């Protein structure tokens, strides 16, 4: 009976001899001895025993380093902002914060929306009895007494040549003041107070030429719609005002 351990030793010796043969130091007699030692063993078993055992050879150190580098290398798609880009963004944010904007009281006259600088609005009241006075422009409806102060009331529709105002449940009188005068403006209804930045205010377009230029301060854009911004000083001109 053949000792398997002895066969394995001889197989390893054959592998070493084969390696030496490739380098010019082969020993044919040893190989023959190994082959003769496996006689009498079944063919398949003998072939497996006589076949040199293949040993995994580790990759060179350089290839292993490349593999590790590929494994742990991450493509960095996020780039840090440069100092110039950072200060550009900061400057834009400051400009936006410092951008001047004004608040406007919006109201309706017919189907159109108009607005007045909220800083010129003293209060809003419901219509009341108006005392007519003679020899005044047609847009001056008369006067009222507001806490002991005589205030002229203007029909703003007539002042803007949009027809004649009629008093309805939604009508209101906007009491306005500038540095020297006070007057009330009768409008069809109050909408809301909006904030419009200066860059969203444009000068009056030529289509408003039929209205006195002094009456319109500009056109404001707010949430996709246009508002006609009125000039209070122009509205007070050619009317009856009460000096404070």
| Percent of residues in beta strands | 25-35%
Domain module count: 2
User: What are the low-pLDDT stretches, counting only 5+ consecutive residues below 50?
Assistant: 25-34
Mean residue pLDDT:
75
Tell me the number of helical segments per DSSP (H or I, 4 or more residues long): 7
Instruction: Give, in order, the helices and strands.
Output: HHHHHEEEEEHEEEEEEHE
Report the C-alpha radius of gyration, rounded.
50 Å
CATH topology descriptor of the largest domain: OB fold (Dihydrolipoamide Acetyltransferase, E2P)
| Count of β-strands | 12
The percent range for helix content is 25-40%
Name the shape in a single word: rod-shaped
CATH superfamily of the largest domain, by name, is CheA-289, Domain 4
Structural class: alpha+beta
Q: What is the top-level CATH class of the largest domain?
A: Mainly Beta
With strands numbered from the N-terminus, the spatial order across the biggest sheet is 8-1-2-11-10-9
Largest sheet: 6 strands, mixed
Q: Judging by the overall fold, what is the CATH architecture of the largest domain?
A: Beta Barrel
Structural overview:
- It is rod-shaped and about 140 Å long.
- Helix 1 runs antiparallel to helix 2.
- It starts with a helix and ends with a strand.
- The protein has two domains: 52 residues, no CATH class; 143 residues, CheA-289, Domain 4 (OB fold (Dihydrolipoamide Acetyltransferase, E2P)), CATH 2.40.50.180.
- With 244 residues, the protein is of the alpha+beta class.
- It has a six-stranded mixed β-sheet with strand order 8-1-2-11-10-9. Strands 3, 4, 5, 6, 7 and 12 form a six-stranded mixed β-sheet that branches.
- The chain contains seven helices and twelve strands.
- It holds the Pfam family CheW.
- This is Chemotaxis protein CheW.
- InterPro entries: CheW, CheW-like_dom_sf, CheW-lke_dom.
């Amino acid at each position: 009976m053949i000792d398997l351990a002895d066969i394995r030793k001889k197989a390893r010796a054959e592998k070493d001899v084969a390696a030496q043969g490739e380098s010019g130091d082969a020993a044919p007699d040893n190989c023959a001895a190994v082959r003769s030692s496996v006689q009498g063993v079944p063919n398949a078993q003998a072939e497996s025993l006589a076949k040199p055992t293949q040993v995994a050879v580790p990759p060179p150190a350089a290839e292993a380093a490349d593999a590790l580098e590929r494994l742990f290398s991450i493509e960095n798609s996020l780039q840090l902002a440069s100092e110039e880009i950072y200060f550009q963004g900061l400057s834009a944010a400051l400009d936006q914060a410092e951008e001047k904007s004004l608040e406007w009281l919006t109201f309706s006259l017919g189907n159109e929306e108009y607005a007045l600088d909220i800083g010129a609005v003293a209060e809003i009241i419901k219509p009341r009895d108006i005392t007519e006075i003679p020899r005044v422009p047609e847009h001056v409806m008369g006067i009222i007494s507001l806490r002991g102060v005589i205030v002229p009331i203007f029909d703003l529709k007539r002042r803007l040549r949009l027809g004649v105002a009629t008093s309805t449940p939604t009508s209101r009188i906007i009491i306005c003041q500038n540095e020297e005068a006070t007057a009330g403006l009768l409008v069809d209804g109050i909408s809301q107070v909006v904030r419009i930045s200066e860059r969203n205010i444009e000068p009056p377009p030529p289509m408003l030429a039929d209205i006195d230029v002094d009456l319109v301060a500009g056109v404001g854009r707010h949430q996709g719609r246009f508002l006609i911004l009125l000039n209070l000083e122009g509205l007070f001109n050619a009317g009856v005002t009460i000096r404070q």
